[in-house]
UniProtKB/TrEMBL annotation:
Domain of life: Eukaryota
Location relative to the cell: Membrane
UniProt name for this protein: Inorganic phosphate cotransporter
Example of a GO cellular component annotation carried by this entry: membrane
Disordered as annotated region, ranges: 507-532
Occurrences of domain Major facilitator superfamily (MFS) profile (ranges): 42-490
Predominant cellular place of this UniProt entry's protein: membrane
Coiled-coil region: none
Pfam families (alphabetical): MFS_1
Amino acid sequence: MDENHQVQAHNLLGLKTQVPKRKDTALTRTLRSCCFIPQRYILGVMGLLGVCNAYTMRVCLNLAITQMVNRTKSGEAHFDPYACPEDEVIGNASTTVLKPYAIFDWDEKTQGLILSGFYYGYAATQVPGGYLAEKFGGKWTLGVGLLSTALFTFLTPIVIRGGGATWLFILRVLQGMGEGPTMPALMIMLARWVPPHERSFQGALVFGGAQIGNIFGSYMSGILLADGRDWAYVFYFFGGFGLVWFTLWSLTCYSTPNTHPYISKKELNYLNKNVTTAENSSLKDPVPWKAILRSAPVWALVWAAVGHDWGYYTMVTDLPKYSHDVLKFNIATTGTLTALPYIAMWLSSFLFGFICDLCNKKGWHTIKTGRIIHTTIAATGPAICIILASYAGCDRTAAMVYFVLSMALMGGFYSGMKVNALDLAPNYAGSLTSLVNTTSTFAGIITPYLIGLLTPDSTLAQWRVAFWVCFAVLVGTNVVYCIWADGEQQWWDDVRKLGYPPGWKHGTLIPDENPEQPETVGLASKKESEDL
């Protein structure tokens, strides 16, 4: 039994917590005296940078690929009567921006397949990543995963020039596998480091790194690719950023407070006293998968997540291509404008969260109603905006305003379906989140490939069809969510306390228990459920 489980066992038995004695050296005493910032906040900042790093490596190809592919075609050129003018115009004749490093002749279908490759690997390692983080600790599960992605990113130019599209697709799958454990490992580390009353702030801090990564990745990619520079610089920059982050992460962060060599004694005692339910996973009942998979609110959540990811990945993966190929922004402008929607989403997510919490606190609506309202805003609002953007034609200002507004409204997902797993299953939120994320990630696999099929010539009319498909998915999945969503803890999350529903005929969820006579729980267990 490791140090943290010893502490947990003492807490559960009502004994005085005995923090295992750690070896004190001159170095650890010096470091402890120098580190006046609480280590859980250092973990929060490094977690934010880790998520930011993960997303920059995920999205950098989306912009770089516009400079890798030579769109000059032999034979008769496709005529698009709705084509927008280029940024560079001399007199009445448009000039072609030189792309000296555009050495690949990949059609839109091939590009879509390459962009989707990441999500094959990402979906495959979500659940195993959570298991490895529980068994070996979140520090190395997350760290080694992102280290591998950083190395693959750094080697991307060599791999592409050596093996072309096939090798790049394989490399993207491997990159996705490295990033798959990121969210499960971070959730486990935050549960072990952050007291319940601090988790909202720390969660917003850490997971806000996703939008910061999208902003930073898009903006820096635009700068690095401007003036016809080699696209390889993008991968060297973000791969190097990942290697620097891993070094700092290895030196400053640890899986649990009791394994941290230079955490202050005051903070360690505080965390051991207040974080008591985060590490009792070995004492919980098995994950009730047969009840989860039969739960209508769970499948409503899955459908809502599919709609969210479809719309989100359409924007993340294909907005740079649309801005460059259809609206004809130059590459530096494309990078800057692609960052604007993520800034809007990041800021609006805090506003939606404040409004939702205020309405819940005032009793103006129930948790269920709040989740449905914000999910509906975040699904139907963007669906309408992207259609308006496509019909704005070559009015580039109007199109980008609609795209920015679309992502701003999508920020409502964070106070809607994104936190609904905590409502339904506070005791099994990790397992439920892995199920939802794994399923919805397939949207990231399908959308780039499907858009590549729908836009072979990357014309405005073809993209309009792709946006109508996105509209249908966002609205359709939201209807399912509105019908079957729930905001209450489900019976299977704590069957000892809540019991089985009438007519349950699928066996017990707890070993050696009769479903007709479920065990009751003691006051301590009830209190733990309420705290969660």
